[in-house]
Write a structure and sequence with these properties.
With about 400 residues, this protein is an alpha/beta fold. The protein is built from 11 helices and 11 strands. Helix 1 runs parallel beside helix 2, helix 1 crosses helix 3 and helix 6 runs parallel beside helix 7. The chain binds pyridoxal-5'-phosphate.
Length: about 400
């Protein structure tokens, strides 16, 4: 570990309050030129005594704007104190979780996984346009059919085609033979550049792509490609639970990664994380953002600095070993659930490193699914699968009644 270490509550409080003090205080300094202030004082009273003990809520009230990307160049000086915390957080995630070299990453706290994925695809589309003179119809997004819908959304917004690789219904792995057929067809249709999105745990299955299946086919067929890893769900799980995770940044093929703190980290919504190797953010810089100090290379524009602080606080409270323990406890409970399902004869998919279990819908009656809030793969068509996500509130005590109900149902 280079940067991530466990801190006490007092150390965390001290660090956040001292960062807030280095930000502009609209009551202490005359600031006439920004369309921003602390939260409305009639509604959000900043003199409340308990705020002195609540660094995250205080950050909300002081309302720092973290517009832009702070790991490179200049940033808005008004919020320099809390931007430092975001910079440290990006370095912790990039180096201590994703295993990039220290000082070799840029990144920022995005609104969520959708934005972070889109940021990557935006950068690579612009790179191919700028450096290779590529036309939109020559650049395609490639991802598996189990990928999150942010990929077709991005294809639509960025106005480039998408290739959806078929997966095996049991293993959820990309079908190699089919992939080659799809890529040959793409080549015949004029696609030269591929933005590959590899899944580090999919939304519905927790499945993890075999990167080599893609890269081998892309090399064989002479495509130019860039790899982004979607770890929106798995970014805070898989690096801790997998024996040899090969979708991290110590793999030179991986150029950027999405993680979501508002999923497994239980941070407030608005805490997606985008990490990319240095030298790439420039392809998303909007030169016209001249009024922003350091300009802007993100999709979102203005964003709350309190979000970055919340993630930093959670990671520092656990420390790397506490986090490892938390993930392993969840995986222990997941294993318990899988053992029960096996005994009942219920067919399911689970990646051994994952805390997500996806059961064939034919075993799950609708009333049980509804009673336990189990989520189907489709709300519009007949469900084929139902998933259970073993979050920290999903204890064995909560799983037992589900298993008991299933037993009764299957005995009927
Ligand atoms: C694998 C994966 N990628 C991307 C996303 C999108 O994340 P968000 O809803 O934060 O935009 C999700 C959300 O469930 C996801 O599971």
């Amino acid at each position: 570990m280079h940067f991530w270490k466990k801190l006490t509550n007092n150390q965390i409080k001290e660090r956040v309050f001292s960062a807030l003090q280095k930000n502009v205080d609209y009551n202490e300094r005359t600031i006439l030129g920004v369309p921003a202030s602390h939260l409305d004082e009639k509604v959000f009273n900043r003199d409340l005594v308990f705020l002195d003990d609540a660094p995250f809520l205080s950050s909300m009230v002081y309302n720092p704007n973290h517009i832009g990307c702070h790991t490179m160049g200049e940033s808005e000086e008004f919020f320099a104190g809390t931007q430092e915390i975001e910079k440290e957080l990006i370095e912790i995630v990039a180096t201590d979780i994703l295993k990039n070299e220290p000082g070799a990453s840029d990144g920022y706290i995005a609104s969520g996984g959708t934005e972070a994925n889109m940021q990557a695809m935006w950068i690579y589309r612009n790179f191919y346009k700028k450096q290779h003179g590529a036309k939109h119809q020559e650049i395609a997004i490639l991802c598996s059919e189990d990928s999150h819908y942010s990929m077709p959304k991005a294809a639509n917004i960025l106005n480039i085609p998408m290739i959806s690789a078929k997966v095996d219904d049991n293993t959820r792995l990309v079908d190699e033979a089919q992939l080659r057929i799809q890529l040959e067809e793409a080549k015949n249709n004029g696609i030269k550049y591929i933005i590959l999105i590899a899944n580090m745990m999919t939304t519905m299955f927790g499945s993890v792509d075999n990167l080599e299946t893609y890269t081998k086919a892309l090399k064989d067929l002479d495509f130019d490609y860039k790899v982004h890893v979607d770890g929106a769900y798995g970014g805070f799980v898989y690096p801790f639970s997998a024996k040899e995770p090969n979708l991290l940044m110590n793999n030179p093929e991986v150029n950027s990664v999405t993680l979501d703190a508002h999923k497994m980290v239980q941070a407030p919504f608005g805490t997606g994380i985008f990490i990319i190797r240095k030298g790439w953010m420039q392809y998303a810089t909007t030169e016209e953002a001249q009024y922003v100090q350091g300009m802007d290379a993100t999709i979102i524009g203005s964003r709350s600095g309190a979000n970055a602080i919340s993630i930093w606080m959670i990671l520092m409270t656990y420390g790397p070993h506490g986090w490892f323990e938390k993930i392993h406890l969840l995986n222990y409970r997941t294993q318990w659930l899988c053992d029960q399902l096996k005994e009942l004869g219920v067919e399911f998919y689970r990646n051994p490193a994952s805390n997500l279990v996806t059961m064939r819908a034919s075993y799950i009656p609708e009333d049980i699914a509804h009673k336990y809030g189990i989520v189907p793969d489709s709300h519009n068509e007949d469900a084929k699968w139902y998933k259970i996500v073993v979050m920290s509130h999903v204890t064995v005590d909560l799983l037992i009644p589900f298993i008991e109900d299933m037993k009764i149902h299957l005995q009927k």
